[in-house]
């Protein structure tokens, strides 16, 4: 059996009396793209919060690269190479595209005792070299000296992904990277994410668009009302009548 890079076992989470996650288990194998789907409010973002330790879970365990993440702070999780983006885009609007990346290089360098993930980003010349490389991978090199505020929403999403790539992730969690992107640029984002997989990156992303899931993902996990209701190859999962009924209202 292939050992998974990320393993979630029996995770439960409540907010007050509201039970948001029930006994959630899933595995992400290294080098692939896993799609997480589910209706609004099914707990996808909360699961990302629990995995990255922005929220504590009430029960269960998350293991990354063979080590439990229990008790770690979010920055310590990130330093191990498990990095996430948020549902709402957060770039620095008045900085240029290139500066938006270099901010991440500096913070990686300044971090005391930064581990291997942080070290990869580096500062100074090394950070600049990496920034250029990542802007190229994300198709933003031609926009390097533009103010981020002048980018389209989709380009800002690509910039946000490039920013977190500066931190040298081993596993990248993307919360709705395609949301609000016009269909023309969505194809580009799909291609850019596939290029990351080719470079050995592992991705777990929240996505709703069925054709995108088919084109992009090696595995799809369905969350419904805080429970995993299906998981497997996109062809099987997305054609499952129970999934279609719950998720697509068919
Ligand atoms: P999804 O990302 O699948 O749309 P969320 O994980 O954002 O779902 O939310 C799942 C449920 O948890 C929703 O009912 C939401 O209102 C609730 N919830 C999420 N975060 C909090 C929080 N910090 N405090 C209270 N309730 C929350
Ligand atoms: Mg969400």
UniProtKB/TrEMBL annotation:
Organism listed in the record: Mangrovihabitans endophyticus
Record's keyword annotation contains Transport: yes
Domain named ABC transporter: residues: 6-250
GO cellular component terms given for this protein: plasma membrane
Gene3D superfamilies in UniProt: P-loop containing nucleotide triphosphate hydrolases (3.40.50.300)
Protein name: ABC transporter ATP-binding protein
Keyword field: ATP-binding, Nucleotide-binding, Transport
Matches recorded under SUPFAM superfamilies: P-loop containing nucleoside triphosphate hydrolases
One MF term in the entry's GO annotations: ATP hydrolysis activity
One Pfam family linked to the record: ABC_tran
